[in-house]
């Protein structure tokens, strides 16, 4: 049999990996650093008190956030954010799979979903506040009310688009319903689901901040609004800096998870490009 | 000749696709039987409803009328007695599973112990010559190797009949010859019954013990031809036999008649 001489394509690995990582690191940090320098130079020659220099902001960052404020404001915010994201993912994928698989359900719900999706989630805050009070639950509900849509809708589309030959293969081998879900439907939809999750993450971060600005006595959003109202400008900027860092951290975590979950998907694209 | 009981019986199979622009009769009236352990090739002009026929046999499509019987039992849906190898290997294998995972998947719901399942999987992967690639993903393999994975998945399922739908239409000629020999070898060493659908006349004569020539759509069986070539076949000597040339010329003529619509329905 000649199969033993056939080659198996492998992904390129090693060979100056360390150097490439270092170069990537330099590239990604180079521009932010340059901008900081320009900002520093500009602010040192400016008298506008709303734009303090980066060093002042860094100083404020250290004083404001490293210490009890981290426990009182940052951790609760992150906790609600994590809870909101987790709930959005679970609800979005579970409901999306059901709706995507059952055609009558889809036809019944689609107009309704379009309507709810079109409502900007911040306007729900007063309603949710009336129903649930000013609680953690209310903030998590607000986060979910916005972040769940991209995940839900992408999951519906992904589940619907299961390849016909793959389905027929499952049929012909009499794969059980559960195995079909686990080994065919969900993996096939996973690229779409991950796209939805990526969009959901940024919505969740925005809603975390907004839900705290409305009615709250703690949290990142509350702090930033508080600093702004009290003309603590450097502190306000440091809060924005912290939010940006949370966003970057979120994106990086997502990137790691995505590369793991969609290893096959990126592998196929790499092979097709080669 | 060993005793070969009837495995698959098809009687007056008819399939009409209903559409808004009127009904399309894909299959007119097909009847044939296949004995256990046979390798039967089905060949016909393009567009004659080969794939439709195959899906009806595999229980993936409901025939409009007629009967498909497997071991005396009517086929109403997919059955564990059949395994299908599709033409589009790229869309039939699951890219998120490894070669091993793909071969193992259909066995998960069979009541087998861990060891039995592992043994079946390993054995099937070795039988198609892919032991070295078991942990790779399908997309890392060439087209021919991917189709070997699909064949391994089918034989690990231990069906009574292997149904192959133009399985080698999308691979290059050299790989195709290797895969044809693989099918012959699996059929001979494992006594697997094979129903092989193809549009390639040479392939049907080289592989088959019998060749069913289909007419143009609406389809019936235009000829049921026994291939009296020696059971030991290889690409060079068998294809050089005068009898091989006679048979392929005969099938070719039949297909040409089918295309021109000159053959008369029985």
- The appropriate CATH architecture of the largest domain in chain B is 3-Layer(aba) Sandwich
CATH architecture of the largest domain in chain A: Orthogonal Bundle
What is the approximate shape of chain A?
Answer: flat
Helix count of chain A equals 11
Any low-confidence stretches of chain A, pLDDT <50, length ≥5? 1-5
The largest interface is: A-B, 31 and 40 residues
Number of helices of chain B: 9
Compact overview of the structure:
The complex is a heterodimer of chains A (274) and B (266). Chain A has 274 residues and is mainly α. Chain A has two domains: 35 residues; 222 residues, MetI-like (MetI-like fold).
What does this structure look like?
In chain A, helix 3 packs across helix 8. Chain A has two domains: 35 residues; 222 residues, MetI-like fold, CATH 1.10.3720.10. By secondary structure, chain A is mainly alpha-helical. Chain B folds into two domains: 188 residues, 3-Layer(aba) Sandwich (Rossmann fold), CATH 3.40.50; 71 residues, no CATH class. In chain B, strands 5-4-1-2-10-9-3-8-7-6 form a ten-stranded mixed beta sheet, sandwiched between helices. The chains are: A mainly alpha (274), B alpha/beta (266).
Secondary structure topology:
The complex is a heterodimer of chains A (274) and B (266).
Chain A: H1 17-44, H2 54-65, H3 68-101, H4 103-118, H5 124-132, H6 136-160, H7 164-172, H8 177-214, H9 220-229, H10 233-261, H11 263-273
Chain B: E1 6-17, E2 24-35, E3 39-43, H1 50-57, E4 65-70, E5 73-74, E6 82-85, H2 89-92, H3 99-104, H4 114-127, H5 143-156, E7 161-165, H6 173-190, E8 193-198, H7 201-207, E9 210-214, E10 219-226, H8 237-240, H9 242-260
Parallel strand pairs in B: 2-10, 3-8, 3-9, 6-7, 7-8
Antiparallel strand pairs in B: 1-2, 1-4, 4-5, 9-10
Helix pairs in contact in B: 4-5, 7-9
Keywords (chain B): ATP-binding, Nucleotide-binding, Transport
Protein name (chain B): ABC transporter
Pfam family, one (chain B): ABC_tran
């Amino acid at each position: 049999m000649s199969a033993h001489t056939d080659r198996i394509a492998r992904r390129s690995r090693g060979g100056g990996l360390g150097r490439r990582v270092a170069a990537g690191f330099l590239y990604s940090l180079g521009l932010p650093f340059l901008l900081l320098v320009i900002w520093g130079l500009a602010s040192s020659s400016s008298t506008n008190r709303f734009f303090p220099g980066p060093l002042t902001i860094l100083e404020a960052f250290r004083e404001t956030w490293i210490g009890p404020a981290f426990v009182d404001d940052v951790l609760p915010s992150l906790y609600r954010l994590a809870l909101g994201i987790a709930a959005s993912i679970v609800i979005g994928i579970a409901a999306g799979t059901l709706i995507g698989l059952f055609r009558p359900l889809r036809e019944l719900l689609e107009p309704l979903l379009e309507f709810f999706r079109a409502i900007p989630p911040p306007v729900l805050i007063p309603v949710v506040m009336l129903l649930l009070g000013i609680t953690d639950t209310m903030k998590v509900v607000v986060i979910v009310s916005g972040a769940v849509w991209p995940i839900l809708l992408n999951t519906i589309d992904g589940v619907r688009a299961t390849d016909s030959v793959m389905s027929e293969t499952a049929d012909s081998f009499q794969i059980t319903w559960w195995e079909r879900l686990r080994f065919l439907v969900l993996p096939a939809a996973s690229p779409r689901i991950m796209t939805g999750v990526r969009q959901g993450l940024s919505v969740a971060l925005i809603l975390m901040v907004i839900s705290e600005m409305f009615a709250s006595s703690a949290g990142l959003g509350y702090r930033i609004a508080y600093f702004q109202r009290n003309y603590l400008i450097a502190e306000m900027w440091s809060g924005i800096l912290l939010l940006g860092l949370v966003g970057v951290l979120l994106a990086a975590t997502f990137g790691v998870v995505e590369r793991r979950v969609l290893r096959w998907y990126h592998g196929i694209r790499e092979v097709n490009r080669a | 000749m060993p005793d070969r009981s009837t495995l698959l019986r098809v009687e007056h199979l008819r399939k009409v696709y209903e559409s808004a622009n009127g009904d399309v009769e894909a299959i007119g009236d097909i009847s044939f039987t296949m004995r256990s352990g046979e390798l039967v090739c089905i060949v016909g002009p393009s567009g004659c409803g080969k794939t439709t026929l195959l899906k009806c046999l595999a229980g993936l499509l409901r025939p409009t009328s007629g009967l498909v019987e497997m071991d005396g039992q009517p086929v109403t849906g997919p059955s564990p007695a059949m395994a299908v190898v599709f033409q589009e290997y790229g869309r039939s294998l699951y890219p998120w599973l490894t070669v091993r995972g793909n071969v193992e998947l259909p066995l998960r719901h069979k009541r087998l112990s861990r060891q039995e399942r592992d043994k079946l999987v390993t054995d099937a992967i070795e039988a198609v010559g892919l032991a070295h690639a078991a942990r790779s993903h399908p997309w890392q393999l060439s087209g021919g190797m991917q189709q070997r994975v699909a064949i391994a998945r089918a034989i690990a399922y231990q069906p009574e009949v292997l149904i192959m739908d133009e399985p080698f239409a999308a691979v290059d000629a050299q790989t195709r010859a290797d895969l044809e020999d693989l099918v012959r070898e699996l059929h001979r060493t494992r006594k697997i019954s094979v129903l092989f659908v193809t549009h390639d006349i040479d392939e049907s004569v080289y592989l088959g013990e019998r060749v069913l020539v289909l007419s143009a759509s609406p389809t019936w069986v235009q000829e049921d031809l026994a291939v009296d070539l020696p059971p030991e076949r290889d690409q060079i000597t068998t294809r050089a036999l005068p009898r091989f040339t006679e048979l392929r010329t005969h099938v070719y003529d039949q297909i040409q008649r089918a295309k021109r619509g000159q053959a008369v329905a029985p």
